[in-house]
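Feature request, filed as a ticket because there's no other form

It would be nice if the structure record came with a short human-readable summary line next to the tokens. Right now we just get the raw output. Example of a typical job, pasted below so the devs can see what we mean:
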Amino acid sequence: MAQTIREVMTPDPVMMAAGFPIADAARRMKDRNIGDVLVLDGTAVCGVVTDRDIVVRAVAEDRDPKTTTLSDICSRDLVTVSPDDSAEAALELMRSHALRRLPVVDRGTPVGIVSIGDVATVREAGSALSDISNATPNS
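Raw output as currently delivered:
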């Protein structure tokens, strides 16, 4: 039986309003030991910001992390999945769009995030990607 996104996703993703400064997002990522934040316009997901986005789109461009907002640097061309979609469908979307993570949205409400590592830890236990994804991060 095919696994659903609900079975492999990380529930309760960190979500922040588009107007928040990226410094706040970076602190939240550090505190939660994560690499991404869903960006909200009201209650709808309008983008995603990753730790790499903060480095490449802000720090490397000498932008002030206290005044640069999530909206200024987030990825807006979102590809999302439903909790009831299959893990296989998510992998195919990741492949075809060259993405490492997908927001999980249920009837317009963000409910989780699924990463390539989430899928690997369940589907390919013991693989290198699974081992890396499950490893304790170095801080």
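Something like this underneath would help us a lot:
Confidence is low (pLDDT under 50) at residues 129-135.
The chain is about 35% helix and 20% strand.
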